[in-house]
UniProtKB/TrEMBL annotation:
Domain ABC transmembrane type-1: 77-267
Bilayer topology annotation: Multi-pass membrane protein
GO cellular component labels: plasma membrane
Name by which UniProt lists this protein: Carbohydrate ABC transporter membrane protein 2, CUT1 family
Species, as recorded: Pelagirhabdus alkalitolerans
Length: 281
């Protein structure tokens, strides 16, 4: 056997173990979601049995019916869709605009201002809960989607992410060529920069959408009327019963997670492209 064949054999064995580890890690990561689905198809007495069941049951529809009888599930989901989509698109636009300014436009105090923005990432968001609540009540935005949407339209991480991506992914020569052709700064951003940073949009969009969709504390504080509850706040009402119905709770949680999976699968290709381009650079 030649040295080349031995090397190829070793390489194949190495690849096999790498794939084995990746498949195992993937299955471990998916198991909580699978078991949540299993619990959403079972009755309480089956969930509490020993040993617990690991295969789906026959009560998926029945448990979901209990959810819709207890809360306005679809109304709350629609509220979450409106809030999450609005904040996501607003964040993508504003953060990419700010990132372009920090990456490609010269102005006084740019480095200091960018450093101050990064410092805000070190401050826990809970510290701003009381002053933010005071501002919202002063503006009269309680029980209004503006109380969630306006504070979430821009964030330090989004500016940092866009600035870094535009800095490395958009050459200065292209920006300068567009300006020589008579483009304004905004037109350079819209017609030149935006088409070149679609993977960064996908990555930041997934992160922001998932964060807003799963946010519980701030919507709980400012949205008291059940008609404007987001889905995570509405699901809290399922825990108020004297006897916990785990099948019903897991059914609501399972169906609340499905839109996140759909969004991730929809932008998965651009998300992976963004990460791989960053690794190459």
């Amino acid at each position: 056997m030649s040295t080349k064949e031995v090397g190829e054999g070793k390489f194949s064995i190495k690849k096999f173990f790498v794939y084995l580890v990746l498949v195992g890690a993937g299955l471990i990561s998916l198991f909580p979601f699978y078991y949540m689905f299993v619990m959403s198809t079972r009755l309480n007495r089956e969930i509490n049995s020993v040993p617990p069941p690991f295969t789906p049951g026959n009560n998926l529809v029945e448990n979901f019916q209990k959810v819709t009888d207890s809360i306005d599930f679809f109304g709350s989901m629609w509220n979450s869709v409106i809030v999450s989509s609005t904040i996501t698109f607003g964040t993508l636009f504003l953060c990419s605009l700010a990132g372009y300014a920090f990456a490609k436009l010269p102005f006084k105090g740019k480095k200091v201002l960018f450093a101050l923005i990064l410092v805000t990432m070190m401050v826990p968001p809970q510290l701003g809960l009381i002053p933010q609540y005071y501002i919202i009540t002063t503006l009269g935005w309680l029980n209004d989607f503006r109380a969630i949407i306006v504070p979430g339209l821009i964030n330090a991480f989004g500016i940092f992410w866009m600035r870094q991506y535009i800095e490395d992914g958009v050459p200065y020569e292209i920006v300068e060529a567009a300006k020589m052709d008579g483009c304004s700064n905004f037109r350079v951003y819209w017609n030149v920069v935006v088409p070149m940073i679609l993977p960064a949009f996908a990555t930041l969009g997934i992160i922001v959408f998932m964060h807003v969709w799963n946010d519980f504390l701030w919507p709980l504080v400012v949205l008291r009327d059940p008609s404007v509850h987001t889905l995570q706040v509405a699901l809290r009402a399922l825990n108020d019963a004297r006897e916990m119905d785990y099948g019903m709770i897991m059914s609501g949680t399972f169906w609340a997670t499905v839109p996140l999976i759909f969004v991730f699968l929809l932008f998965n290709r651009l998300f992976i492209q963004s990460l791989s381009e960053g690794a190459v650079k």
